[in-house]
Amino acid sequence: MPDIIDAAIAHPHLKTLVAAVKAAGLVDTLKSPGPFTVFAPLDSAFEKLPPGTVETLLQNIPQLSRILTYHVVPGLWRESRFQERMTLISVEGSPLSVQSQDHFEVKNAAVVAADIELENGIVHCIDTVLLMG
């Protein structure tokens, strides 16, 4: 079974996320045993950001790292574990609200593919990049 990084590299719609993770130096972290739950923004999620945002983030590694680790939660969080509304603490350290009552979403992002089980965690693909604040 692939790990989070290998699965992301193989996924046709996670190319921007892979490039960002590599630029931030987080590959080894996401290849470690974990387990992690990753809310992975699709390429289309990055395209929703204002023009130039991705390029600017790729030049500001500390900020890029904070944003990427905000998308990661320690432990295995399958959709079935979420109650109506819960708050988890991201690896970055900020709270992340998740709900699965009417539809599965994290903060302001819809989960478009849930419970992708991998060697070192679970990935949920989302339609919006999560920003802190």
UniProtKB/TrEMBL annotation:
FAS1 domain boundaries: 1-130
PANTHER family for this protein: FI19380P1, PERIOSTIN-RELATED
One Pfam match: Fasciclin
Gene source species: Lyngbya confervoides BDU141951
Domain of life of the source: Bacteria
InterPro entries from the UniProt entry: Adhesion/Biosynth-related, FAS1_dom_sf, FAS1_domain
Protein name: Fasciclin domain-containing protein
